[in-house]
Amino acid sequence: MTFEEIVNYRRSVRLYKDTPIDPERVRHCLKLASLSPNSSNMQMWEFYHITDPETLKKLAVACLSQKAATSAQQMVVFVTRQDLYRRRAKQLIELESQNVLKNSPKEKHEKRIKTWKMYYGIVMPVLYSRFLGILGIIRKILVGIVGLFRPITYQVSEADARVVVHKTCALAAQTFMLAMAAEGYDTCPMEGLDSKKVKRILKLPAGAKINMVISCGIRAEGGVWGDRMRVPFEEVYKRV
Known about the structure:
With 240 residues, this protein is of the alpha+beta class. The chain has helices at 3-9, 23-33, 53-62, 67-70, 85-103, 109-128, 134-146, 158-182, 195-202, 233-236, and strands spanning 45-50, 74-80, 186-190, 209-217. The chain folds into two domains: 3-81 and 169-236, NADH Oxidase; 84-159, no CATH class. 29% of the residues are buried.
């Protein structure tokens, strides 16, 4: 299929055939999802690919027993891991330092490596650290002062940081669903769920948060609820 055909084929499917799908093809789609754009390349996500029948049954209950869950052949739980920000930042310092050594003139190595160390060693830990909302308030005050003199990002509260991490994870989820459509497989993103129960089923640490659960399979008759509806494009398209 062309990309346009893939986008048009993808629908939120709420009833699947009792036909197995290849877990390796699903895994490949998740590898493609890991290439999605994300804020500062921090990649604070994890993808839990569920194929075990008993776990699928438990997750279906946690997803409020909706048909998209109870008929799913497999599921993927997209999880945010903001609590891993220090580990990710350390990995990126090493990665970007190697990129500088490989791709930059020798005389610029020291300066550019220093820049990356400051960005991932100081800026990212400051932005993603949390303490009862207090650190976010301090960050808001600081950027408010700096913003009097030059353009700056104002979304630096602890709530803002959570939004960024979830937006990033959602980009990966969308890439995954399009990749699945290219394979001829169907999906349904689900946010109506008991996130605490999902975390218990997967034995996730406290710092992990559920972004969404995506059910997977092959659409059955009645799995797509009618024609696709969208508000008129001219209502949402604004050319400036």
